[in-house]
Amino acid sequence: MKISIHQSTVLVLNKCWQAIDTKTPAQAFCMMAGDSATALDIGDDGTMTPARWEDWLKLPVRARDTSVGTARGLIRVPTVIVLARFAKVPKRRPRFSLHNVWERDGGRCQYTGRKLKPSEGNIDHIVPRSRGGSTSWENCVLAHREINTKKADRTPEEAGLKLLRAPSVPKELPMHLFISNHHGVRDWEMFIE
Length: 193
Fold this sequence. Notes:
- The protein is of the alpha+beta class.
- 15% of the residues lie in helices and 23% in strands.
- It folds into 2 domains: 10-91 and 174-188, no CATH class; 98-151, DNA Binding (I), subunit A, CATH 1.10.30.
- It has 4 helices and 11 strands; from the N terminus they run ββαββαββββαββαβ.
């Protein structure tokens, strides 16, 4: 696989082997050289052997491996590293987006309760932006496009609409839920969903 040393293609596990982040190969090498992480040498049969920096440098580059050229020769890029001292599972709040408002509201118009197709819904500002309303979790809901158009720059009360439930900020979720295997790294499959 051909990658840049600056693409996030290294999965980071906490010391309990739970996925918590991704790093670039350059960042992973720095963490390994500083003894804050070890790499996993994952065999074709799925066997996993932790390798410290000094040992990692001696490993041969296999045909399926990504490598980087250095003055010492080729060095295999790890696909997974394990932190030496960090055991927590960090949490993060989903970022504000139409997709995440859709998820929070269950794909239902918050005025009619109707289940929407992707082409039918958009974000409605409860207090319109033209009247000082913010683009925030607490002021935005999923609405049917036609309902949103009819509501225009009025509040729900002025438009004769009633919200099914007040919008809220989503709870923080474990970081592993935000990690995607965009590069199709096979070795990640046993650690992320």
